[in-house]
Amino acid sequence: MRRWLSRYWHVFRSPSLHFSLGFLVLGGFVAGIIFWGGFNTAMEYTNTESFCISCHEMQDNVYAELKYTVHYHNRSGVRATCSDCHVPHEWGNKMGRKMEASKEVWGKIFGTINTPEKFADKRLEMAEREWRRLKANDSLECRNCHEFEYMDFSRQTPVAQRMHEKAFSGEIEATCIDCHKGIAHRLPDMSNVPLWPETTP
Questions:
Q1: Inside any domain, residue 136
Q2: How far apart are alpha carbons 101 and 43 in whole angstroms?
Q3: Of 93, 95, 83, nearest in space to 52 by CA
Q4: What are the DSSP E strand ranges found in the chain?
Q5: What is the dihedral of CA 52, 54, 58, 63, to 10 degrees?
Q6: The pLDDT value given to residue 164
Q7: Which has the closest alpha carbon to 53: 41, 62, 42?
Q8: Which of 93, 70, 75 lies closest to 83, judged by CA?
Q9: DSSP helix/strand/coil, 2
Q10: pLDDT computed for residue 132 by the predictor
């Protein structure tokens, strides 16, 4: 066994002594394609709804709430999944979000949100972290589907019409998440959190 390992270690350390340059280049190219394909397949799998709700913390809480919103059931039949709202579409931003989200796995591993009571205790903290992220990227995920210039303000409620027109004109510096904090999930205790952005007189 030791001789076998030693032999392969020498091949690994000096592959050009044992294989031709063409073979190494072709082998590297094929290995790169396999790695890239596998990596992207894995990344896309982590964007699926089935993956997102595979732990009961998400399935029993935020996913259950989503089912009663317009993002899940609506007259047009267009439905947003978890990744539509929580993962940017562009590759670079997506990778950044994946790295950022990896620390959220701790909640699953250490059981900090594994009961309804624990989840409720952490809800405001988790929500504020997501609101800050959306505020920082100008609600990028919202804007993948919604844009001011394509809105028909005349078909909106008077309050929505007024706020959207002000945001579109730049009269107020607001992004989607400023006003739509509870659009897909139940709000935490908001007694100390402003629901509306500041407006200019």
A1: yes
A2: 13
A3: 83
A4: none
A5: 70
A6: 92
A7: 62
A8: 93
A9: helix
A10: 92
Q: Is the dihedral of CA 35, 39, 40, 45 positive or negative?
A: positive
| Total domains, the chain | 1
Tell which residue, 80, 32, 107, has the closest CA to residue 176. Answer: 80
Asked, for residue 41, whether it belongs to a domain, the answer is: no
pLDDT digits (tens, 9 = 90+) for 109-159: 888 888 888 988 889 988 998 999 999 999 989 988 998 889 998 899 999
Q: Per the domain annotation, does 95 fall within a domain?
A: yes
Residue-number span of the structural domain to which 146 is assigned: 56-201
Token pair recorded at residue 69: 């919103």
Residue with tokens 């894995």, as numbered in its chain: 42
Contacting residues for 168 by C-beta, under 8 A, at least 6 apart: 148, 149
Which residue positions in the chain have pLDDT lower than 70? Answer: 4, 8, 10-13, 15-19, 193-201
Q: Is 6 inside a domain boundary?
A: no
